[in-house]
Amino acid sequence: MNEPLDDLAAEPRAAELLALASIVEPASSSASLRRRVLAAAFTSRHPGRPAAHVDDIGSVEALRRTIVSFGSLVDSLTDNDGARITIEGWTVAGLLGHLTGVDEYFGCVLGWWQSDIARDEVDHLAMTLPTVAAATDSGLQRARDEWRETSGRVLGRLSALEGRLDQRVSFHGFDFSINSVLIARTFEMWTHLEDICRAIGATPDPLDAERLRLMTNAAVGALPLGMMLSGRLPMGRSVRIVLTGVGGGSWVQPLEIGLPPDHGISPSATLLTDAVAFCRVAAKRLDARELEFRATGDAGLVDDVLVAAAVFAA
Predict the structure, then answer these.
(1) Does residue 74 belong to any structural domain of this protein?
(2) For residue 17, is it within any domain?
(3) 0.70 exceeded by the pTM?
(4) Domain count, the chain
(5) What CA–CA distance (Å, rounded) separates 24 from 192?
(6) What is the mean pLDDT of the chain?
(7) Residue 150 is part of which domain span?
(8) 238 and 293 in one domain?
(9) What DSSP character marks residue 12?
């Protein structure tokens, strides 16, 4: 697996999806492997673009909308909701504490403020355990107030990032562009919004097309890296990914590290599925074996692609 790591610089969105391996749910692979892969996965080119047109709102606006949407859910929570169990065995209040801690660290990374929480920055979950415990003990109202205060400070400064998106920062010990960090944070907050909705039995509001397109571009563009990490050998082949619903689209995605979108090889298979469901697979909130899809062409390649789509949050 070592040799392909040198080629990861050719994959533009790989870092964003690999960030989810650490941010949404830490990967089971060794920290040293994730560090080496992430360090190599610098942005250099764009993946194949979908045919359907959706306005590009950019990563700043995507995160802003996601924070606002998350805030609406938080405001609707009851005391009983705050005690319900979500991921990691945390209560809903505890999950708010986790996100408060992430916001504190996020502001430190961007130079907005200082916080003691940055001391354990390499481990995304361990870093926030003190704020998780404090929010769990204090209950929903205190957890909600503290999340509101910290996320409000983030919202107040987001627009200043528009001219800094290509700037590189150390995020959990890895080198990312600010743009990549914003996309990863959008993916994380959307995932945790759905975590809370599942815990309290609520139906989340649908994602708008612009945010969903940003996320699907990241998920599809990272498939070559997923193939490599899962030990699949695409041998120069590509796959057509058709994601349905608002914010979906169609991609002809090479599956071998380093191949450009216009490599001229016809797709060996076509996979058609729902755009939101595909993102849930990438975030490891839906088992790839439970994904509803239709496929034509090489059935074995389709199976490999579904494994690759989920490998980042394994």
Answers:
(1) yes
(2) no
(3) yes
(4) 2
(5) 8
(6) 83
(7) 58-209
(8) yes
(9) S
